[in-house]
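Self-study notes.
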Amino acid sequence: MADTWVIVGLGNPGPRYEATRHNIGQMVVDELAARRREAFRAHKANARVAETWLRPGGAKLVLAKPNSFMNVSGGPAAGLARFYDVAPERVVVVHDELDIPYDTVKLKTGGGHGGHNGVRDVAKALGTPEFPRVRVGIGRPVGRQDPADWVLDPFGATERQTLPILIGDAADAVEMLIEEGLVAAQQRFHAPRA
């Protein structure tokens, strides 16, 4: 399938985690599905999937939310890549990023995992770190809170006011990455806001 892209939103399954910082990748994939009025269905790759199009006549999008926990996201991601016959460079992983300030979106292909166990597991399962990533900034905790606890907390009241904008920006970044390429998306989303 020449122009098919798999977009994997990382997160943890179940209602306990759905509103947490660690699940922002899945929130972005939900937004992409909502824009196209698509619903998720069970897939044999241990994920929920919505098949749709970037735009009429455009690339096919396989929007995916693994049913596995974050740290073992690689199996579903690699299973979907095999099922849809998609190379790693067309598997877009959307995930939370501690080292990027809240309300910021950054894109890259390849490189290290930066301590993110979900990204580490996807790279291991795909057999390469060379896949595009849309990194959604959640910032680091203030004070002494353990980052492992921070990512499993829901967004704070102030963050929730701008969260829909951040999710929308990240969804826009995914669309632009696929439509115009990594460099164009980086130039738009890495530039300071006016």
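Second protein, same conventions, sequence then structure:
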Amino acid sequence: MLAVVIGIVSVSWPGITVGAFVILFAVYAFMSAATDAARAFAGDRVGPVLGWLLLALLSLAAGVIALAWPGITALALTIWIAAWALTTGVMEIVLAFRRGEKAGERALFLLTGLVSIAFSFVLFVRPDSGAVSLATVFGLFSIVYGVSAVFASFEERRHRTDSRRSDPVSA
């Protein structure tokens, strides 16, 4: 359900969505820097301390760069999301051909997998077309993905209920 809501917001306000993506990435980078710095001083050896401090500095720099240059950050996030969508799409198509899947479940996996791959293709071919179009496409993708996930959860719930009814009751 959250994916559907995020999709609707992304389609309705794509400019705000892009800004939110960049800010969320910066917040994530700052949080990662803080946890990496905390890990640096949690160890009892010098080697890991330097490694964790280096990671903390890199995360801190990534957060500052994201806020200082949001356009470049949006482009990098576009490429990252394209890679994620491609990986997700391939995995969903693989899941569609698992043994024991019903035709409806197989069709849902295939549909969401193909939508994910198409989405990634568009982003890889034209990452420069603008982050606003990414937000719109991301919103449409989220709506389709969210709706299919809701239907899949209902199907799973029905399947579990049916299997419980068929189990003999032991006394």
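Instructor comment on the second fold: The chain is about 85% helix and 0% strand.
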